[in-house]
Design brief:
Layout (H helix, E strand, L loop, with lengths): L1 H13 L7 H4 L8 H8 L4 E11 L2 E13 L7 E8 L2 E9 L2
Antiparallel strand pairs: 1-2, 2-3, 3-4
């Protein structure tokens, strides 16, 4: 049981993504596909989705999807990066210094 708990802690620690180094951050740009971003910088710490719909004939149809991917700061790289995608394409890139 103790070994199982240690393995769970090991995998939980490995689940956190690394922050994006400046050398990689400057390569990100609007118009990139989500797959390009993830292959360049790795999986994000968090992601959130939202759909924008339209009501037609009593049914709601999805018009577009917006997704935000976040890579959190750590002790070595004090910047959190948030990439916003619309329909799978980068439309905004924001980088904030952790205080």
């Amino acid at each position: 049981m103790k070994k199982l708990a240690c393995l769970a802690l090991l995998f939980a620690g490995a689940a956190h993504a690394a922050p994006i180094p400046f050398e990689t951050y400057i390569k990100l740009h609007n118009g990139m596909l989500e797959a390009e971003v993830v292959s360049m910088v790795g999986a994000p710490d968090y992601s959130s989705d939202s759909n924008q719909g339209q009501l037609t004939g009593g049914r709601v149809t999805t018009v577009s999807t917006t997704r935000q991917l976040s890579w959190l700061a750590n002790g070595q790289i004090p910047y959190t990066t948030i990439v916003t995608l619309r329909d799978g394409v980068v439309v905004d890139i924001k980088r904030d210094k952790k205080l």
